[in-house]
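Entry type: protein chain
Record version: 2
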Amino acid sequence: MRYTKKQAHTEIINLVANFRANEPSLAEAPEAQIEDNYIRRLFHFLNWNTNNTGLSVAEWEFVLQRTDEKGKRPDYLLQLAGQQLLVMDAKKVKYDMHDPRWMQQVYAYAYSTQNQPPPRKIDFAILTDFQEFVLLDCTLYAANPKTVSNFRILDWSCDDYVSQFDTLWDLFERENVRAALHTRNTENPSGLWARYLSPRKVKANRLPPDKAFLSEMDDEKTGWRVRLAKDMKKRNPEADGALITAAVQLLIDRLIFVKALSDREIEEDYLTQLAERVEKSGLAADEAGWFNACRDVFTKLNQFYNGSSFEPRPELEAVTVSNNVVREVIRDLQPENSPYNFAVLPVEILGTIYERFLGRVVRATDSRVKIEDKPEVRKAGGVYYTPQYIVNYIVENTLGELLAVCKTPADVAKLKILDPACGSGSFLLGAYSALIRWHEDYYSDKARLTKQDREAAYYESNGGERLRRVRLTAKLKRQILLNNIFGVDIDAQAVEVTRFSLSLKALEDTRRDELREEVNLFKQTVLPDLRHNIKHGNSLIGPDYFAGQMFAKPDELLSVRPFDWAHEFPAIMTAGGFDALIGNPPYLNVDDTWGKGDSRLAALKASYPHIYNDKTDILFYFMGKATELCKGRVGFIVSRAFLEAYKADKLRQHLVAHSAITQIIDFRNHSVFSGVGITTCIILFQPGQPPTSVEVYKLRSDELPSLELSTLLTNANVFEHLEISQSHLTSASWALTSPAITRLNVRIDTAGEALDKILIVGSGMQTGCNDVFGERTQEEITKWRVKPGQYYKRASNSDTQRYFIRDRGEYILYPQAVPSFDKLPAGVQKHLLAHADELKKRAAYQRGDCEWWKFTWPLHEERYDRQRIICPYLATFNRFALDQRGEFLSLTDTTVLFENGQPESLLYLLGVLNSKLLTFRFKSIGKLKSGGIYEYFWNSISKLPIRRINFSNPTDKARHDRMAQFVESILALHQPKAKAKTQAEQEQIQRQIDATDRQIDKLVYELYGLTPDEIAVVKSQK
């Protein structure tokens, strides 16, 4: 029955009275008696279906958790509408609900779900023996178990169920909880979600498990890595950074694995056993026999689990570390101290932690160690860990498409899935999960499981009751790993972590008795040996590296790690390659990172002439390599720069020539990588397939709501959906525009002529050393007695605005002519000449189109004093300025347009370039970066279509002259605006400028012959 509030009040009064009357005898009552007679009845009167009567397993509201005799998991999960809401642990009446042990246990379980998606995220935990009732806010991070006591939201005795009945009803009555559930992720939560502990006050403590756990592992002062590394270096002075990095990671991996086995109740509490062994060996500062003390435990686990997780390793044999430091790490991981419970902390979250962990290494000098970013991580600006919703989407649209046509497990066993840069294994974990779900669904759909089926699956039981939920056997999960999952990475630590993560995933939802049965009866090892599936090597550089002039020294070979695909995966490659390639390839500029003399760069140039272009990103080669390795479907999350980058022209041509591109999801300004500004897109393609139409999704805003991507793509307010023909994609920039914008761009281009046919489009002075030639101050100019004509004002990126250049008070000290240079003080000449060779190395200097393209050192008498327009390298809209008096020079952060004897005046060209129409056009040409910023490089600007003037046509000439007058007017207005002393004055002048700007835009629309509808398209774009 459903209780009204009044009826529930009466029943709960009676329930409390009954408890108080029998309280003395209940002190020693079994926990089950308290649960059945009081706790369940309390929630029954609050309208919860505590017996799950008439509900399918998926709909259960009170879920009794399987647990061992020590009860390491809380007793109940409370859920509604498929969402987990509360975790509750019931205790005997004799226990104190304020005991940190009990609060820590239930808190850690709920806190460990905080990285989960909303349906599986548990914010609150209840600890009760009915006599006491404690509600904890588990969204907060507890640095130690004693802190958890501060997270109490409610702390009641059973009498409060009556005296505080209104609150009890509002917070815990089933329908009230259901109503509040819809507000849990809004700015105005209700019910339980309005009862957080002072959200503003404790905001700093809302640290999710992944970040908290990473900090424990990798804090620069107190993290496990730095403590272990320093101790290893102290005891092993000869050990280098590579050995210490490997040994520290192996030890941490093993201890985490042991914790996961214990938390999942697959194994006994080996952490406590390890701690006891280490303590028995001795915790004095000079004791270093920790490995000998733990050897028996590791050996025992290795014999049972195999899979290389606990096998003897030379890295651990080669170093010693003090027992005391090892014991500190073990203590942090023990359940009574750790806020993490690996029964609910997903392996995928562990992957996010490790991805960041892998971005740093131990650097050892003769006397000390330091934890620092890897060089490639510094170059790339951070570690790009892929969010789970991206992994899910790519797996769903590659492997998922293949699984959709599989009829039997035998069909699935044939699929080969590869991540060629697997990192911590996040994509392979996603693929493995998808394969597990397919098999669960396959066996769940059967009316009954046959004897043969039971080798692969079984029905879960709970308290003797058989459920319809199907579980896969450990044997089948091993087979899936060995049959389907493959990965390669150049980082040995990444390979270790991927094997480690997949091994943990294989043990998820596995029963302890099943594993014992497999080992004891069938002599099976629990985990597969993944060394033949997850391999260490360079996915891009093959055995040709060893030939001829590309042969390198042994230490270089260790860093390059050439990889022979045909030799390492012969059966797969003979059969045509992998069925699916998935992943997040690394992003770094190979030329800048490695340098011209690096043999890796030479290998890429030799192996990928169809991809290589000066200053290309390494991800280009992964995309190109995918067409060789895959015979099915490819899904990558990559930097979106390849869509528009000038240097990606060969890659774009290769992709359209060798594959069918099926989908591109362009995230535009939004960065899917937390804390990293790089912009990305998802690309899906099928190597070797004929061209087809391409589905394009373009993010409309700078943010992405926190929902699964598949759901978001159907929302037209979030993503613009286009369908274009692949035949429209060439080596040129992929603008991916709507048909209306594409037609308008063609119209604009037809009406104009490329800018580089009119002006010389070049660069600012590409010195390679800006602080020598530029950034000089007036004080230095005076000190060095440099005269006017020997220095110029600097036109910088940020100070180059539309039409005018702000004077930032910096100067470029670089003379124009030989006599001037010779008159400079000898010290100044030496200072400049020391960097002369740098100028000659610059590409722009060699092309002959930079600010000082006519000069060599020492300077010739030629002067390059043509008038020019300057624009910044980076801008959100067109910002072209005219250096009217020749007083400015620009450095590396600008592009320069030199006059070239064209009949049109620079004033006319300046107005056209700054118009809304040409800004609109450039957004389909330029390379978009984060924050809506475009790269205004010479190779992009040169493509802008300029409407030429027929001076023999009076109407055309009149338009030209009118444009020049408008621009002259704006230039003139900027001078008094800069000198205006009041805001009112500035605003009035700005209104005149804006009005003139609108006249220019109107004239440009007229020049290009746009219709009202086309003008509306331009104005509708941001």
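Comment: The two ends are 58 Å apart (CA to CA).
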